[in-house]
Amino acid sequence: MRELKVSVIGLGGMGGGMARALLAAGFHITVYNRTIAKAESLRAQGATVAASAGEAAEGADVVLFSLADEAAVEQVLFGEVIWKMRPGTTVLDTSTVSPAFARNTALRLAASGIHRVEACVVGNPMMANTGQLRVFTAGEPEAAESMQPVLGALSQEIRHLGPAGRASALKLAFNLLLGIQTAGLAEAVAFAEGAGVDRELLLTALDNSGWRSPVLSFRSEFMRKRSYEPAGFRATLMHKDLQLADEEARSFSVDLPLVEAAAQRFAEVIEEGRGDEDAAVVVELTSSRSPAVRS
């Protein structure tokens, strides 16, 4: 079978990791990132670095997007890339967007003969680097099936969920839980420190208890080191996803009060100028407001 020509647009922690996994699997890929410096390590590993998003998409069979938000997808996909893609191309979109945006984007691309497969990728940048993500797809079943060679290089599990929008809904469900748990862990740390319990002691006790989870352990490492860069999941993106989940829930008359509270905490992180740090940095704002440690 002819080798698929794959392009990756957006080389943040997840996008860059997925590009490396594709290279490791033997794909010859073209990459593009607005900050070209992020592409240099991939160039050294054999990737072709494009000068623009449009150039990256030209002639590709699959264009994988890993962008920050809906505005970025709109600008790059419909402002720069769509004119360069031929009918039959597949957009494999791993960006976290609302289900409504996902459905609308699929319809707009279909009008140009372009397939869209939305891919909810679950994991962190380290898992992306090693092809150990879990991927949940939505969209046309045939288009999703055709992505198996690419998705197989990225993941340890692939599941198709059905029509457009479902993978986006699942991703927001995961991320709203992550946001609430991260804010909750920050409050647990602040409470313990305010009561005179050392942060390291608390986090170690949690890691050795029934409350342990891989997700919280990943965030607790940032809190333990009190160092939040490079981010695994930026606070700005956490806030964005919580807002998307809340807005989507309102459209079907569901209230998410915990999501609203968590979103406010991450809004405060952004106001403090720390939005580009890992979401775990919320602990520093929470702790700074707690009472003085008792002796």
Overall geometry: globular
Helical stretch tally: 14
* Tally of strands: 8
How confident overall, as mean pLDDT? 94
Flag low-confidence runs.
291-295
Main sheet summary:
8 strands, mixed
Strand order of the largest sheet: 3-2-1-4-5-6-7-8
Q: What helical percentage do the residues reach?
A: 40-55%
Q: Give the termini separation.
A: 70 Å
The fraction of residues assigned to DSSP E strands is 5-15%
Question: Structural class, judged by helices and strands?
Answer: alpha/beta
Can you describe what's shown?
The chain is of the alpha/beta class. The protein is 52% helix and 13% strand. The chain contains 14 helices and eight strands. It has helices at 13-24, 40-44, 53-57, 70-81, 99-110, 125-129, 141-146, 148-154, 166-194, 199-207, 214-225, 235-251, 257-271, 282-288; strands at 6-9, 29-32, 48-49, 62-65, 90-93, 115-122, 133-139, 155-160. An eight-stranded mixed sheet has the order 3-2-1-4-5-6-7-8, sandwiched between helices. The radius of gyration is 20 Å and the shape is globular.
